[in-house]
Design a protein that fits this description.
Keywords: Kinase, Transferase
Distance between the termini: 15 Å
CATH topology of the largest domain: Glycerate kinase, domain 2
GO molecular function, one term: glycerate kinase activity
Number of strands: 13
Family: Belongs to the glycerate kinase type-1 family.
Organism: Prolixibacter denitrificans
Number of helices: 14
CATH class of the largest domain: Alpha Beta
Order of helices and strands: EHEHEEEHHEHEEEHHHEHHEHEHEHH
Shape: elongated
Strand order of the largest sheet: 3-4-5-6-9-10
Structural class: alpha/beta
Protein name: Glycerate kinase
Amino acid sequence: MKILIATDKFKGSLTALEACNAVKEGILKVIPSAQVDMLPLADGGDGTLETIESKLHFKRIYLDVTGPLFRKVGAWYGLQDDTAYIEMASASGLLLLREEEQHAPSATTLGTGEMIVDALHRGARKIYLFVGGSATNDCGLGVAQALGYRFFDKNSNELSPVGASLEKIVSIGGKANPDVANTEFVLVTDVENPLYGTNGAAHVFARQKGANPEEIEMLDRGLRHFSELIKQEWKFDVANIPGAGAAGGLGAGAMIFLKAKPRKGITTIMEILHFDKLLQEADMLISGEGKFDQQTLEGKVVKGTMERALQFKKPFGVVCGICELKSDEINELPVVAVEAIKNEETSFEDAMQHAYALLVTRTEQLVGKMLKS
């Protein structure tokens, strides 16, 4: 029997690879002869590259770049032949800043742009840009500056590539690195928010990046203003394209300056890792994540794997840290069984502290049910 394991991380307790290892251990206790293939997955947010690295075997490229507050930071991206995998959080992420430093109006994506330029110089002609976990709200001005663009105010003064500059821009100078035109850019994000407005980048995300209410309004005006400028000057209306509001408007910036095509996180990662081929060869599929809830069903890792299991008619089981779906909700899903680490006999503290061992046990229980079904 061949079993494919494809789990996300169990946030706060297990990495995706650790979770896969625990599930494998549980499977082999029930079916010692099973062939087990492990595929750690992520939904495209920060930490995605570390998760998929074990399967892709890309080369890590380390470099010093401009951090979100213009201090140099050490960052890295993956390079495999002519394909680069860039995680913007590595250069422009919120986790690079102490809580008291986080301030969206002052933050830049310049370092992310520097990684892109480095990849272009090394011959990358397809670049996946993963945009979760940003500290920024600059609509990609930093990326654009790294590529060769400049932004000016009404007095022809050059503006810093930060969110606070957006509403002051009256003209755009410079031109893009010539390699951009010969490169395919894929914007990987599950965020579908528009660029501005009540559901836009500033109103939905800027508060968690250190912006106060007045600054959120200022940033929203800036995103609207910059969008209108691009619409007038470049004849490109980006504001309401799903994903434009991702990463403080970097989604829109990537579409404008890189002609990037937005793609769903889990769908893209499964494609990169040739998930369908592995699943077609398997007899059953086990997936999992920390919390199995309604949000799962809106596009997380388990939803993506569940859809594929249904498509290829493979028995599908779920392990998780905690399950918040009711029995009747689970019964409506194409799932043989769900086993949660935390149950009536296990406290939250024990579930977190002994997650690996408990996941082995829950997997044994899951596989037993799947074999009987």
